[in-house]
Each structure stands twice: as structure tokens, then as C-alpha cells.
Amino acid sequence: MLFIQKRLPWLLLAVSALILEAAALYFQYGLELDPCVLCIYQRAAVMGIFVSALIGMSAPTSSIARWIGYIGWGVAAGWCLYLALELSGLQLGIVQPSLSCDVNAKFPAWFKLDRWLPAVFQPTGFCGDIQWQFLGLSMPLWMVVIMTLQLIVLGVVVLIELRAMLNR
Fold first, then answer.
1. What's the CA gap between 143 and 89, in Å, rounded?
2. 3-state DSSP call for residue 36?
3. How far apart are the first and last CA of the chain?
4. Is 80 a catalytic residue?
């Protein structure tokens, strides 16, 4: 049995998403840094990674559950990377502000996270503000690094999965 057919890798993915969410809430409430709408969308994308991990963890020996998990993981991490790149571009002055950098979240009517969980998904800051840096990188640049690593790990896992499928 391959390691990808066990619960532990999926659990690690879920924990990594929860750590990112906890860090975001610490920055917001512990350090009093206001999240912008793009930050909030990134939080939603990270929750997509968490849900994908739960799907994979629910039935790790099922190739259908694993592939749903992989696809969800890839879509969520890719979307989060896109948002982090856009926000980084705004903060660095490379990208002009767009309509996506609004003061209110625009979740679909059937998925109003900002209304259901306003303490987590309600934007209160502005996209252009750099409120925090570590090792010279702002928060969205760190998310670029983290999501790039997530996608690299996903790519390796999918290659292992495909190789195992071909060797059967």
C-alpha cells in the first residue's frame, strides 16, 4: 500500500490548512492586523484545501476519494496562489487595483461565508497596506511561497499516484 493510500498524509494536509487559518486569525485578533478582501478570499481557498484533505482522509484507499481530494487541493491552492500573487502585485505597485480589491467580500449567494462567519471571513482592511513582514517578505508573498510549495507537493503526489496506476 502506498503512503498516499493512508490517512496520515491527508491528516498532515488538513493540519497544515488549519495552521494557516489559525495564523490568519492570530494576525487578525492577536496582532490586530486587518485582513483585506483578497486575504479573506485566500482564507476561503485554504478552507478548500482543508475540505479536500477531509475528503481524501475519509477514504484514502478509494481512488475516487483521493482524486477528488487532489483536484480540490489543486484548485484551492492554485486559486490561493493567484490571489496571493495579485495582492503582492498590488502591494508592490506592479498591478493596478481592480474590482476584486473591494471593501466587501463578494461570495456567491449560496456561500455567504462573510455572513455566516463574519469573525473569520469579514474583510476590515485595505489591499495596498503592508502591515507585516518577516525576512523581508509580506504576508501575501509568504502565501505565494507556501502555495507554491503546496502545489509542488501535490505534483509529486499525483506523479506517484500515476506511476502506481501504470505499474498495476
1. 13
2. coil
3. 12
4. no
- Joined together, the cell numbers standing for residue 97 give 487595483
Of the candidates 7, 39, 66, 163, the residue annotated as catalytic is: 39
Q: Please tell me the distance from the alpha carbon of residue 140 to that of residue 92, in angstroms, as a whole number.
A: 11
Q: Indicate which residue of 80, 101, 115, 168 is catalytic.
A: 101
66 classed as catalytic: no
pLDDT per residue of the chain (168 residues) written in tens, 0 to 9: 567 788 899 999 999 999 999 999 999 999 888 888 889 999 999 999 999 999 999 988 888 999 999 999 999 999 999 999 888 888 777 766 664 677 777 777 788 787 887 778 878 777 777 777 678 778 889 999 999 999 999 999 999 888 887 887
Q: Is 43 a catalytic residue?
A: yes
pTM of the model: 0.86
